[in-house]
Structure formats: C-alpha cells, structure tokens
Amino acid sequence: MALTHYETLGVPRDASRADITAAFRSQMRALHGDAGGDDELAKHVSSAYNVLSNASRRATYDRTRDCR
Length: 68
Description:
Elements: H1 5-9, H2 17-31, H3 39-52, H4 55-66
C-alpha cells in the first residue's frame, strides 16, 4: 500500500504548515544528491509537500482520503 503524503513527510494529519515545511526541509537535506540521497524518494517528498503546504490542495486531498 502506498504511503499517504503525511506518512511520506513523517508528520501527523493535524500538522501545522510550519511543521510540514520543517519536515520537508529536513528530508530534502538528507535526500539531496550531494548527501548521497535518493532522487525518486525526493520526488515523492516534494510532491507531498506541494499538496500539504497549500491549504486548498490539502483540503481536497484530505477529502479524497476520507472517502477511502
């Protein structure tokens, strides 16, 4: 089963935008190519951040996740 965006970033569903941004930055530092990171995983982390950092996209995502 695929990870949710919240699991990808390692934050709870009620995380604040600041918590999401901090988790994103932390993971991207570790996943950076100069740090021997994983490009594919970095793409997933970036995608999760793009959804969860935007209030309207996050609300839509949450609604679709609730339907499952």
